[in-house]
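Quick check before the chapter quiz. The format below is the same one you will see on the exam, so make sure you can read both the input and the output lines.
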Amino acid sequence: MDKKQTSSELSQAELPPAQEEQVPANPPSRKRQLDSDDDAELRIKRARLTRQNLARFNKMGKKKPSDPSDDSGSTKTISTTASGLAIQARKNGILEPRHSLPPTNLEDLHERHARSRETASPPESVYKQYTKRAGQARNETTMVIETSGRLLKEYDDEGYAREFNQAFTGYPKDVGFNNGLSAPQPDFVEGLEMEEYLPFPIDEYIAGAVLYKNDPGSVTLPHIAGEWKGPTGDMREAEL
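Here is the expected output.
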């Protein structure tokens, strides 16, 4: 063995580990494959998340029908989307105003609206304050609070009542015009209580006259029902 060969072998054997030729743990081709796998997994996760979000948005767009046994009426209930509700209502015989005949008492309504007020009109300052508050309402709840006190009358009659945002739990299902629809739940109704009709058993003779089941103080045969909308509300939806 000559001196040069020995020196070369010793130099190779004594190289510290840090100077040895390092083999990449993940060769470029393997790294590209891992990156591709990671991207595929990320895409799968995104797809799953997107489907979950779509399902969540669908639930938000469709309001869950209420349980007929639930008397709380705390949640607004519509069994279908707005367009589906309109179509189902039309199938049930409910026509839009432009397709409907005028009411038989239309002339009486015109005369009533043309009459002078029985009480003095509020001063201008009250109107300005009212328009300011209504104009600044940011949502439907604020609109209800700011306007209901002015739009709705108050009655001293103890037998006259009104309810807000309460589903008609005592109303029969599928009697024709409401086939396939959830229980009506307008923003407010007012009328006489069931007690005011006694001793006549109105609940036995007129189905749906008593709006809330198992409630002797229920509004019965309401005189008026109404719907509020906030600053971004849809009037066609309110009509439905």
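If your answer matched, good. The helical segments are 3-13, 28-61, 82-91, 106-114, 124-136, 140-151, 202-205, 235-239.
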